[in-house]
C-alpha cells in the first residue's frame, strides 16, 4: 500500500504520462483487501499494479496504527474528480470504461464536462455484464488506442476492474489506467454518496448498505469482521516485536 495522498497520486499519473510510461492504479478499500485473501487472480492483479492507494478510511486508520503517517485516504471517486479538474488545465485526455449502461456513461461524461469545463473526454465504452468475446475485446482495445487517451478511468467494480487492467495493460497505449469502482455511478448521479461526516467516521459502508441492502449485506457482514480480526492479529504481532 502506497504512503501517498491525492496530490502525489496525481503527480505520479502526470509523470507517467509525461514519460510515456505504462502503469495502472488500484484503489484499495476493505472489500478489496479481504477479497485478495481468497481470490488469487485478484491478488496477483493488485500486487502487479504500479500503485495501490488507500481508498478506505479504515485502511488509513489501520496503517497509521501500525506506525505510518497518512493524513487522508485516496478515495477513488474523489481522486477521479480532482484529476478531471486538474486535467482541464493540463490537457490530459480521458477515456471512460464502465458505467451501468450507455445512457449512464453519457450522463457521466455530461456531468464531468459541466463541472470541469475544458476536461478532454476522448471516448467511452460501457461493457456488458457478460464476458466480452475476443472480437469485442479487440474492438475495445482498438477504440481506446485510437482515442489517444492518456488516462483510462475504469469503473466496473472489484474484482473485475483490477483483473481487466492487469489483462489489458500491455495491449493499451494509454499511459495510465485507474480502477475507481462506484465512482462512475456517483458522478453520473445514479447513486448517492455518503455525507462527508460519515465518510470521515469510516461509516460509508453503513450508508451504502442502507441504500442497497440486498446487494451489499453479504459483503459487509462477511468482510468487515474479517478485516477487524485480521488487523488485530497483525497489530498484536507488531506490538510484541
Please give a structural write-up:
The chain is an alpha/beta fold. The chain has one domain (6-194): Rossmann fold (3-Layer(aba) Sandwich), CATH 3.40.50. 56% of the residues lie in helices and 13% in strands. The protein is built from 12 helices and 6 strands. It has helices at 6-18, 30-36, 40-47, 57-65, 76-90, 102-115, 134-147, 160-168, 183-188, 196-200, 204-211, 213-240, and strands at residues 23-28, 51-54, 93-98, 120-125, 151-155, 176-179. The chain has a 6-stranded parallel sheet with strand order 2-1-6-5-3-4, with helices on both faces. α2 crosses α12 and α3 packs across α8 (160-168). The longest helix has 28 residues, at 213-240.
Q: Which strand order does the major sheet show?
A: 2-1-6-5-3-4
Task: Report the CATH topology name.
Answer: Rossmann fold
What is the typical, i.e. mean, pLDDT?
93
What portion of residues belong to β-strands? 5-15%
Order of helices and strands: HEHHEHHEHEHEHEHHHH
Main structural class: alpha/beta
Intertermini distance:
21 Å
Helix content: 55-70%
CATH architecture: 3-Layer(aba) Sandwich
Query: Helical segment tally?
Result: 12
- Low-confidence stretches are none
Q: Count of DSSP E strands? A: 6
> What kind of sheet is the major sheet?
6 strands, parallel
Compute the gyration radius: what is it?
A: 18 Å
Tell me the number of structural domains. Answer: 1
What shape does the CA trace take?
globular
Q: What is the C-level CATH assignment?
A: Alpha Beta
Amino acid at each position: 500500500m502506497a504512503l501517498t495522498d491525492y496530490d502525489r497520486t496525481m503527480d505520479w499519473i502526470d509523470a507517467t504520462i509525461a514519460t510515456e510510461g505504462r502503469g495502472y492504479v488500484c484503489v484499495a478499500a476493505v472489500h478489496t483487501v479481504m477479497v485478495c485473501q481468497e481470490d488469487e487472480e485478484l491478488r496477483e492483479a493488485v500486487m502487479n499494479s504500479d500503485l495501490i492507494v488507500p481508498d478506505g478510511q479504515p485502511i488509513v486508520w489501520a496503517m497509521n496504527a501500525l506506525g505510518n503517517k497518512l493524513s487522508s485516504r485516496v478515495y477513488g471517486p474523489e481522486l477521479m474528480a480532482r484529476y478531471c479538474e486538474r486535467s482541464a488545465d493540463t490537457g490530459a485526455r480521458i477515456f471512460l470504461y464502465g458505467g451501468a449502461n450507455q445512457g449512464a456513461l453519457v450522463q457521466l461524461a455530461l456531468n464531468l464536462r459541466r463541472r470541469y469545463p475544458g476536461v478532454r473526454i476522448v471516448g467511452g465504452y460501457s461493457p456488458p455484464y457478460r464476458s466480452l468475446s475476443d472480437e469485442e475485446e479487440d474492438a475495445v482495445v482498438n477504440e481506446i488506442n485510437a482515442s489517444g487517451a492518456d488516462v483510462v478511468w475504469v469503473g466496473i467494480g472489484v474484482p473485475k476492474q483490477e483483473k481487466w487492467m492487469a489483462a489489458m495493460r500491455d495491449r493499451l497505449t494509454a499511459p495510465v489506467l485507474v480502477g475507481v469502482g462506484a465512482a462512475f455511478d456517483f458522478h453520473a448521479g445514479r447513486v448517492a454518496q455518503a455525507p462527508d461526516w460519515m465518510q470521515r467516521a469510516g461509516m460509508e459502508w453503513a450508508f451504502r448498505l442502507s441504500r442497497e441492502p440486498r446487494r451489499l449485506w453479504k459483503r459487509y457482514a462477511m468482510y468487515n469482521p474479517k478485516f477487524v480480526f485480521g488487523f488485530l492479529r497483525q497489530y498484536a504481532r507488531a506490538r510484541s516485536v
